[in-house]
Amino acid sequence: MITALEIKKRLSSVEELCLIGPLVTNYRPKKMPHLLVDGGIKIKNKLKNIPHWSIGDGDSTKKRLDVLLNKEKDYSDLKAALDCIPSSIKCLYLRGFLGGRKDHELINFGEVHYFLKNKKHVSVHFSNKIKAYSAGEYQLNIKGTFSIIVFEPTKIGIKGDVKYPLRKKGLTPLISLTLSNEGTGIVNIDSNGPFYIFLK
Questions:
Q1: What share of the chain is helix, strand, coil (3-state, %, to 5)?
Q2: pLDDT 10s per residue in the chain (200 long)?
Q3: Which residues pair with 52 in a beta bridge?
Q4: Helices (H), 83-172
Q5: Which of 51, 59, 86, 166 has its CA 20 to 30 A from that of 9?
Q6: What is the CA radius of gyration of the chain?
Q7: Is 135 in contact with 192 (CB distance < 8 Å)?
Q8: What does the longest C-alpha to C-alpha distance in the chain come to?
């Protein structure tokens, strides 16, 4: 058996990590370490020669997990996995965390928001269409409709190849001001806190 703290130590020099959730399908492994969250352990056999560990409370798998959490807990398995991630990580890929129960999906977004708080230049990719970023300045290649969403008051500026630029302004959570913008190339986003981009 291994502890969550040991996983964190083993990842201490890693910059990219993939988290696999229970809803994963048709997954082709990326060449980076993986953290399998509960039912995400079902892809374990695809990870030959790729470092990987598993964590969860076992409510969506019968397979043995490296770190077994208590089922009677007041936090999600994803939160426990995010707590294993050291400050060296700059890019996270999450697969298998979308498409299930809406309450779980929203909570997953919230947990990632709190993970990104107090970090700089860290990105989380739920899919090619949904990405989250910590505070920082970003140059993103966006061609098409996109929306920006925040989960707490955040100052964001948008400029570059974009239909609706925005001088750095305070956004309130889930405000429609940044709904359905249009990018035609390099979009510069400057934010003092975590934000999500939803691409069409």
A1: 20, 40, 40
A2: 789 999 999 999 999 999 999 999 989 898 999 999 999 999 999 998 999 999 999 888 889 999 988 888 988 999 999 999 999 999 999 999 998 889 989 999 999 999 999 999 999 999 889 999 999 999 999 999 999 999 999 999 999 999 999 999 999 999 999 999 999 999 999 999 999 999 98
A3: 34
A4: 102-116
A5: 59
A6: 17
A7: yes
A8: 53
Q: First and final CA of the chain: distance in angstroms?
A: 43
d(CA 21, CA 37): 5
Residues contacting residue 98 through CB under 8 Å, at least 6 positions apart: 23, 105, 108, 126, 127, 130
Strand partners of residue 132: 124, 196
Distances (CA, A) of 198 to 48, 56, 57, 73: 33, 28, 30, 31
DSSP codes joined into one string, 32-73: S-EEEEGGGGGGGGG-TTS-EEEEE-STT--SPPSEEPPSS-
Contact between 111 and 82 (Cβ < 8 Å) = yes
**Please, which residues have CB within 8 angstroms of residue 75's CB and are 6 or more apart in sequence?**
none
Q: Within the chain, where are the H helices?
A: 4-10, 77-82, 102-116
Length of the chain: 200
